[in-house]
Amino acid sequence: MTIQQEIDAGYGAQFTAGPIINQLNAYPRQWVKDGDQAVYGSIQPEMKDSLKLLSNWYKEGIIDPEIATRTFDQKRSLLGEGQTGIYLAPDFAPSHAKDLQANWVAVQGQVAKEGAKFQTHAAPAASKYLVIRKGYEHPEAVIRGLNVNLDYFSNNPDEKVKEYLAEISKKNRL
Question: What pTM value is reported for the model?
Answer without folding.
Answer: 0.65
